[in-house]
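Dig into what follows:
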Amino acid sequence: MDERKNNLLKVIVETYIKTVKPVGSKALCDLFGCSSATIRNEMAILEEMGYLEKNHISSGRVPSEAGYRYYVKNLMEPEKLTGSEMLQLQKIFANTDILLSDAINKCMDIISDITNYTSVVLGKSSVDNNLLQINIIDLRNNQVVAVVCTDKGNVENKTFNLPDTINVKEVIKTSEIINKMLVGTPINDVGKRLELEVKPVIKNQIRQYETVYNIFYDAFNDFVNNNSNIHVTGKTKIFEQPEYSDINELKRLANKLEDNNLITKVEEVSDEDDIKVYIGDENEFDSNCTIIRKKYHVNGEEGTIAVIGPKRMDYQRIVGLLEYIDDAIDNRKDT
């Protein structure tokens, strides 16, 4: 792509990120010293290339997912932190009275505060374990205990009160089906496989299968919640973004942010240590979000720091912040 189109796309993306308003040709004429017709022609070409989209409300254009991707890959320059931001973060990392893991959490809290996005820290945890078995213990009086065990020796118990209409034998039968189908599955993948693989099977074998299914889903979800080293800050911050003004969209995303099974999808599993940007459909968490994440290393163990925001995320600012945090972690490898 030629220099003018590159510059034009960069300005459109960064203008839309800041204003949340479709960008029209008039606003760009003076900046580029071109006629409105020339700018419109260039914007039309960018649209044909898939980098811009029409807005239904106005005649302006907004970046597409492909446009954001091109911008991140070819045009974006990480933004440097302000002096006060550096001082704030340096003060935390310089405090040797707190563990490095706590310092990372505190700094990601600050990032959430100053960006109005959701920040996530995923440390080493039992979600790296595989399912060994799930057992059902009948306590009588319509009570059962679901016992989840992993290959690393982690165990989680959860007690359930069964409705009178549910037969304990059917709950036990379901546990046998799960053990047959899912033993060896990574714990953070069990929820998805329960939905996609186990549920269709028990539907044909278990009466009131939905209720029985929920027992096991809740048991595995509790295991992930109680054993995962997950630190999420600013779950409501992201809702200050105009993309989430629709109440149904807000509720949908709020439910996802409360589900640690889904939050673990934010984890960076690539062997590469570079900052990764996953826009829309590129991430497993939510197709209407962007996730920017970075793997970090502490004493031989890996973790992930990440920021969740709208696709209209301030990419250069977030990348700059995560780069700074990563450098600070490298400079203080204690615990």
Notes: DSSP finds twelve helices and ten strands in the chain. The first strand starts at residue 52 and ends at 54. The chain has a mean pLDDT of 89.
